[in-house]
Design a protein that fits this description.
The protein is mainly β. The protein is built from 3 helices and 25 strands.
Amino acid sequence: GSAPGLLDLRIIGTDNRETPYKLEIRRGTKEQRDVPVAIRDQGYVQGEYNTFIADLSRDGVLHNRIEFQTTSINFQRTAVVETSNDLTTWAVVAEGIVHDFRLMDTVGMSRNTAMAYPDSTARYVRVRVLDDGNGSLAITGAHVFAVQEEARREVLWPVAITDISPGSNEGTAQVELDLCHDGIPTDRLSVTVDDVNFDRDVTLEASDDGETWRTVQSRASIFAYDTPRFTGENLSFTYPETTTRYLRLVIHDADSPPLTVTDVQVWGVERRVLFFAKPGEAYKVYYGNADALRPTYDIDRLLGFLDTTDLPMASLGAQMDNPQYVEKLEPFTERFPWLLPLVLALAGLLVGGILLSVVRQARKALPPQE
């Protein structure tokens, strides 16, 4: 029920004074700095692993991510990352899966050859990409990064599937969703399906009334594979944030059988309001003023010097009408737009009648014509 962007939000304390606050939209942040390295000792141990060492030239440089380049495609391997200061003693700092999967070179492509690890200041980073019985990879280079990242915080919103039916275009199926309220910000959707070994394009549409639809994401893809050469899935995609109540997922099946969609989840970026609360004080949240402007408080600058990671969480009570609210009436002429033309018309008739009476009296006062 609030204005877009929560700009009409106000917090009022027991003393009826406005309490400053800061609205945080927790989209997350990421700063990535490329650390210069020289690649050395690159090679392949038959039947065991590809390997190379990234040399940062000196120790004491912060880094926590490495990504290698390769011309090989359609692979899935285990990679191990190690660090050292003397090329003799190595510490394992990360282990995980790297992969490349694509259809027809670029369509349906999914690639990840990056490995994150805890902050390190070691001079050398060694990567071993295990053979897994599939032969050597053509590794052409690597980059090391120092990444500072604040995780995105999400809210899972309740959503109901209201209809699953064939789409308006041949070879499509559509899933209609209802968030039950207007104004809920969403920007990520994931589906649960019973099928496997598929790769489909999808389109997402939004509507305020469930009748008129507009496209918010013209093309995304969902896939799930379980084959000897690749196992993996991506059943989630992001889209530009929207606050409409209704969403419609259009799945482009072409000539393939429709997918069996069993569940849909919708996510949005978490909003939180930070303010200084006095012990024992009760606070009320006011909203709904369409004419309100976004407030500006000193707390916007103060929070940069405070730790806000583990704050106590306030809970909302029941929503109620504001007993002091007085409806702002439109001007009289806007509430009765027909009144002014009517008054002008009556005034015109009145003036015309008066003039006609004056003319008649003037004629009687004049001498008769010869």
